[in-house]
Amino acid sequence: xxxxxxxxxxxxxxxxxxxxxxxxxxxxxxxxxxxxxxxxxxxxxxxxxxxxxxxxxxxxxxxxxxxxxxxxxxxxxxxxxxxxxxxxxxxxxxxxxxxxxxxxxxxxxxxxxxxxxxxxxxxxxxxxxxxxxxxxxxxxxxxxxxxxxxxxxxxxxxxxxxxxxxxxxxxxxxxxxxxxxxxxxxxxxxxxxxxxxxxxxxxxxxxxxxxxxxxxxxxxxxxxxxxxxxxxxxxxxxxxxxxxxxxxxxxxxxxxxxxxxxxxxxxx
Length: 268
Known about the structure:
Blueprint: H1 14-19, E1 26-32, H2 39-44, E2 52-57, H3 64-71, E3 76-79, H4 85-95, E4 100-103, H5 115-123, E5 128-132, E6 139-140, H6 145-161, E7 174-177, H7 181-184, H8 193-203, E8 208-212, E9 214-215, H9 227-242, H10 248-267
Parallel strand pairs: 1-2, 1-4, 2-3, 5-8, 6-9
Antiparallel strand pairs: 4-7, 5-7
Helix pairs in contact: 6-9, 8-9
């Protein structure tokens, strides 16, 4: 029996759901920068039934690309055009060809063995499945108290400004149907991308469900997250999205629409 979605999940687009496969092709997107030490652990745990794995490389100076090719047959290497985790994820999402996209971290903190749970939530009717470390069955071994307090504060702000009942916000394990990408219209470049995805999924009226997930410590290497600068980026994202303001791309599109409207008015 398919799991029942929570009552707070938003309504979503039933037309899209009616045309989606019950056995979707799954694309796994992994942004990476100097993660040669962690990648073997991550890649060996990815179910071989997935449609494709895309490693988005941020111009690594170690053996990240070679290690990826040695540890996963037919892995697709996408060279990141800019900088930051958000930029890498957007490049990977654009290159993905599957029906479902799953975002994983390259450091081993998000366990690929959980992929079927995320895909199952989508096949049960969700448009967007977001990982939560704070649902029963989830957890974290890589979150000091100050980051837990910060995440909790961000969750409360999103509930107040946008709505929903999220239990987690700044977590990189997310999965969604590829056809929702135009609706969330991502434009973040840094670590704020996860908060942006989750907020815009709510604002777009997507049917969102949280999936219990356990976050482990990174396998090897040095964390890229900078608590204060990246936390500030997340806070600004929440405030701007809560106020209904668009990001850089949205503002550019709005200006173009206003320009076209003005020209039409003059020609009438």
